């Protein structure tokens, strides 16, 4: 099958949406499908890309690295006809998707969409967005956007509930994101490797590293996470909180670190190349997050594939991902994070049980299964 994916967000941007698209593209190609990507160009765009079509773009908001493509319908029609495309799959709600919908309609191609983002939690990136776009207006706008689609792919039940709430007649399928199990699976000598990786990053071998990966941003509740763990860090000097990522609240976190003299324990690592992320996960002891805006977080899947237990705020998006009391803990308030982390890191047998279970459960999110399930839906439509 010849498939066209449309997105306003693609490499070199680094986030969960891009990772999900890359994993799907690679998985489908391994199953002998041809996949092209129609996306935007940026100042960092790679040259000589195979099956990637880029259009000029303008930056929408640097905090979340979104670029709005200036896409021409005729050019897209030419691409789809030249590549003999049989199906169009959009991964964005912005300008690239608008043209994709028109092209699919004109060429009478099946049209699918994946909901990657809960836009209610991202309105603050729009000028006066929280005031201009109350919830019911966002719902109506999204319902109108989905009108032409045959199928909507939902990475979690949380996403499906949102779609069904605004349009109960829309056909939906829940397909969780997938990751490369071989890439993130921990190596055999886990304990020795952890110690070596910690030493390489200037840490002590006995330090306990709590890891957060993602944007340092309001919708991720990054500042809330840091503030919640300050008491724990102050009385446990061997515990470290490593934040991998960047975003609009990075300076706020830096100020908190400075005020509480925790520069040796709260480590703002910045963005890390995706190729280096497996080592970051294997160096850490557990994954922590206070985010309530997730749909199906790639970072938690990757962490579990690396054998990391997960301590997080309870959220519908995580209920099918993190098994309470087996692979991690979901808590109902921010102040409860501290107690769960302390209990887990201070009891080695419990920690090892959680780590083993996280590794086992992560097998459900293998990218080859992800591609196979998507392939079945493509064939159906």
Question: Would you spell out the secondary-structure blueprint of this structure?
Answer:
Elements: E1 2-6, H1 16-30, E2 34-40, E3 52-55, E4 57-61, E5 66-69, H2 73-82, E6 87-90, H3 95-107, E7 111-114, H4 129-132, H5 135-145, E8 151-154, H6 157-166, E9 172-174, H7 181-184, H8 190-200, E10 208-213, H9 222-235, E11 239-244, H10 250-259, E12 266-268, H11 277-283, E13 286-289, H12 298-305, E14 310-313, E15 328-331, H13 336-346, H14 348-361, H15 367-380
Parallel strand pairs: 1-2, 1-6, 2-3, 6-7, 7-8, 8-9, 10-11, 10-13, 11-12, 13-14, 14-15
Antiparallel strand pairs: 4-5
Helix pairs in contact: 1-15, 2-3, 8-11
What does this protein structure show overall?
The protein has 381 residues and is α/β, with parallel strands linked by helices. Helices cover 41% and strands 18% of the residues. The protein is built from 15 helices and 15 strands. The strands form 3 sheets. The chain has a 7-stranded parallel beta sheet with strand order 3-2-1-6-7-8-9, with helices on both faces. A 6-stranded parallel beta sheet has the order 12-11-10-13-14-15, sandwiched between helices. Helix 1 packs across helix 15 and helix 2 packs across helix 3. It is globular and about 65 Å long.
Give average pLDDT, whole number. 90
Task: Please compute the radius of gyration using only Cα atoms.
Answer: 21 Å
The major sheet is characterized as: 7 strands, parallel
- Strands across the major sheet, in which order? 3-2-1-6-7-8-9
Please estimate the helix content: 40-55%
Instruction: Output the number of helix runs.
Output: 15
β-strand percent reads 15-25%
Task: Kindly report how far apart the N and C termini lie.
Answer: 12 Å
Q: Enumerate the spans where pLDDT stays under 50 for 5 or more consecutive residues.
A: none
User: What is the approximate shape?
Assistant: globular
Number of strands: 15
Indicate the structural class.
alpha/beta
SSE pattern: EHEEEEHEHEHHEHEHHEHEHEHEHEEHHH
């Amino acid at each position: 099958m010849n498939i066209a994916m449309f997105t306003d967000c693609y490499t070199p941007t680094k986030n969960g949406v891009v990772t999900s698209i890359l994993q799907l593209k690679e998985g489908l190609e391994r199953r002998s499908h041809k996949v092209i990507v129609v996306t935007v160009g940026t100042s960092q765009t790679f040259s000589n890309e195979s099956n990637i079509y880029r259009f000029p773009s303008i930056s929408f908001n640097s905090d979340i690295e979104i670029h709005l493509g200036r896409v021409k319908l005729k050019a897209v029609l030419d691409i789809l006809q030249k590549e003999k495309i049989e199906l169009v799959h959009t991964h964005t709600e912005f300008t690239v998707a608008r043209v994709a919908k028109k092209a699919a309609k004109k060429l009478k191609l099946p049209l699918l969409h994946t909901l990657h983002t809960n836009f209610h939690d991202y309105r603050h990136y729009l000028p006066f967005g929280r005031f201009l776009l109350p919830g019911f207006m966002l719902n109506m706008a999204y319902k109108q956007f989905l009108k032409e689609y045959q199928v909507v792919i939902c990475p979690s039940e949380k996403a499906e509930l949102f779609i069904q709430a605004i349009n109960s007649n829309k056909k939906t399928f829940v397909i969780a994101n997938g990751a490369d199990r071989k890439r993130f699976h921990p190596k055999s000598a886990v304990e020795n490797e952890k110690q070596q990786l910690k030493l390489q990053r200037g840490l002590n071998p006995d330090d306990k590293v709590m890891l957060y990966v993602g944007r340092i941003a309001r919708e991720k509740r990054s500042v809330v996470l840091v503030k919640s763990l300050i008491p724990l860090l102050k009385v446990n000097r061997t515990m470290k909180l490593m934040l991998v990522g960047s975003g609009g609240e990075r300076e706020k976190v830096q100020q908190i670190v400075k005020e509480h003299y925790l520069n040796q324990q709260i480590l703002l690592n910045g963005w890390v190349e995706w190729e280096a992320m497996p080592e970051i996960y294997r160096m850490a002891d557990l994954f922590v997050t206070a985010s309530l805006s997730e749909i199906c977080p790639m970072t938690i899947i990757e962490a579990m594939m690396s054998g990391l237990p997960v301590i997080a705020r309870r959220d519908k998006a995580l209920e099918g991902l993190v098994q309470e009391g087996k692979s991690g803990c979901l808590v109902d308030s921010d102040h409860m994070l501290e107690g769960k982390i302390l209990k887990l890191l201070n009891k080695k047998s419990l920690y090892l049980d959680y780590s083993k279970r996280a590794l086992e459960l992560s097998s459900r999110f293998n990218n080859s299964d992800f591609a196979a399930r998507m392939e079945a839906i493509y064939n159906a439509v």
